[in-house]
Amino acid sequence: MKDKTEKAKERHIPAPSVESIRDLILEAKKKAYAETDHEPEPELTSAVEWPITCTVGPGLEGAIACESKVGYVNGSKGWLIYRGYDIFDLCAYSTFEETSYLLLHGRLPSQAELTEFTTSLRERMFIPQTQRLMLSFPVETMNPMSALRLGTNLMRQKQTYRDTDTEADLKVGEILATDDDSIPMETRPPGKKNPVFEFLTGLFKRVHPASEDALVGSDEIESCYNLIAGVASVAATIGRTRAGRIPLEPLPEYGLAGNYLYMVTGRRPTALEERIMDISLILHADHGMNASTFASMVVASTLSDIYLAIGAGISALSGPLHGGANVEVVKMLAEIGDPSNVKKWFRETTAAKKKVMGFGHRVYKAYDPRARILGPISALLTENDETRRKTYATAVALEDAVVSELGAKKIFPNVDFYSGIVYSAMGIPQELYTTIFAVSRVAGWCARVVEYLENNRIFRPRAMYTGTFDETYVPPSER
Ligand code: ACO
C-alpha cells in the first residue's frame, strides 16, 4: 500500500505558469463568446437627450442618472467592458495599474506613462504616517471595513490641508470669525477660489492641466493616485494589525497587487500569486452604477472632497448586500463539507426557501464573466492541497446542482462564488475579503467621480410623501 507522502507526490501537479493563466482566460473568453451574441444594443449605449423618460423601480432601479464612458455591464449578455475593452482581454493582458490608468484617464497609457504611473503608485503605497496613526486606534478589534474608512480619513488628514491650518496660514483678512475665541480652524483654508477641493498644490508633479475654475484639476487626480495606492496599504495594514504584527512598507520589486499580498501576509508572493491577485483586482475595478459607486458620486456631487467621497464608497460596500457575499460562500462550502453532501444540502436549502450564496445577480441574467475567469483560476490554485481541492470540488458540485435546478430562472454563479476560494488559497484571512474589493473598486470610484464632476449636478431624487397631514401637536406630558 502506498503511504500518504507517496500519494501526495503522485498528486503534485507543477504550479501553473503565468502564461497558462492567460490561456485559461482566453479559453473562458472563447466559451463566453460562443454562448452569447456580440451585437451592440444602441438603446442601452446611446447619448441621452435630457430630460428623459424611463421606468424606475424602488431604490432608483432602472433610473438613468448620468452618461458615462467609464464602463458598461450588459447583464443579459454577460458583458463587462471598461472604456471599450473587454474584461477578458484586460485580465489576459493588462495589469491593475494599467487598468486603473485606463479607467481614470480614458485611454491606455504609453509604455513610459505606464512605467511612471506604476512607480508612482508604488511610491504612494508608502504611507508611514497614516499607518502609524492607524496604530493609535483599536484597529485589531474594529470591523475591517470600518477601519478602512478610518484609514482614508487619516490619509486625507495627512495628504490635504483641509483640516490642518497652521499659524502660517493665519491671515487677518481671511479670518471668518473675529471674536477673541477665533482659532485657526476658523480661518479660510488657502488654495483655490473654490474652498472645497484643496490639496497640497505643488507637492506632486502635475499630471494633467486644468483651468482655474475646473472642479477636477491635477490636484484631484493626484489625490485619486494617492487613494488607489493608499487604500491598498491601509487594507494591508488592517490585516497586519489584526494579526498582531506591525505594518510593512512596499517592496520595489512588486506592483500594487504583489505589494498588497506581501504587506498583508508578510510573505513574498510568487509570480503566479501576484498575477492572480492582479487579475482579481482588474475584475473588481468597476461595475456600473452599483451602490458604492453611486454613494461616492453622491458625496462628490455636493463638492465635498474625493477622500470623503471614496470613504462613502467604502461605507456602502461594507454592507452584506454589496461586498461580503464571498465570505458567506466560503463559510457555506465549509458547512457543506464534501461534494457528496451537496445534493442533500441543496434540497434542504431550497425547501427552506433560502438563497444559495454566490448565485444570482441583480444585473447578470447570464453567466457572470468574472466568475468565468475566477472559476478555472480557483481550480488551478487548489489543485495541490487536499482540503482546498475538496472545497473546490464541493463548489463545482454545487454549481452543477444550482444551475441544473435554477438555470432556467437565469441563476448562475456570480463573482463572489469563486473569489473567496481564490483569496483563501493565497492565505488571506476571510475577514479581509471585502477590503480587497475596496482595494480594487477605488479605481472605478475615482474614475466615475472625476468623470461626473466634469459636468457636476448635485444628486437630488425625490421621495413620494405618503404620510399624514393635519396632525395636531400634543405636548409630551399629555401624550
Ligand atoms: N439562490 C436561490 N435562488 C435564487 C438566488 C440564489 N442565490 N438568487 C435569486 N434566486 C431566485 C429568487 O428566489 C427568485 O425566485 P422567484 O422568482 O421564484 O421568487 C428569483 O431567483 C429572482 O431573484 P431575486 O431575488 O428577485 O433577484 P435579484 O436580482 O433581486 O437579487 C441577488 C439578486 C440579491 C444577488 C440574489 O441573487 C441573492 O441574494 N444572491 C445571493 C447573495 C449573493 O451571492 N450576493 C452577491 C451578489 S454579487 C455582488 O454583489 C458583487
List keywords for this structure.
single chain, 479 residues, mainly alpha, Citrate Synthase, domain 1, 19 helices, 3 strands, binds acetyl coenzyme *A
CATH architecture of the domain at 91-321 and 433-453: Orthogonal Bundle
Number of strands: 3
Give the helices and strands as they follow along the chain.
Answer: HHHEEEHHHHHHHHHHHHHHHH
Note the beta-strand portion: under 5%
Distance between the termini: 83 Å
Write down the overall geometry: globular
Main β-sheet description: 3 strands, antiparallel
Structure description:
The chain is mainly α and 479 residues long. The protein has a domain at 91-321 and 433-453: Orthogonal Bundle (Citrate Synthase, domain 1). 51% of the residues lie in helices and 2% in strands. The chain has helices at residues 4-11, 18-35, 42-45, 87-93, 96-105, 111-124, 128-134, 144-159, 218-242, 256-265, 271-284, 291-301, 306-317, 325-336, 342-351, 369-382, 386-406, 415-425, 433-454; strands at 71-74, 79-82, 85-86. The chain has a 3-stranded antiparallel β-sheet. Strand 1 and strand 2 (79-82) form a beta hairpin. Helix 4 packs antiparallel against helix 11 (271-284) and helix 5 runs parallel beside helix 19 (433-454). The longest helix is centred in the middle third of the chain and has 25 residues, at 218-242. It starts with a helix and ends in a 25-residue tail after the last helix. Mean pLDDT is 87; it is low at 164-209.
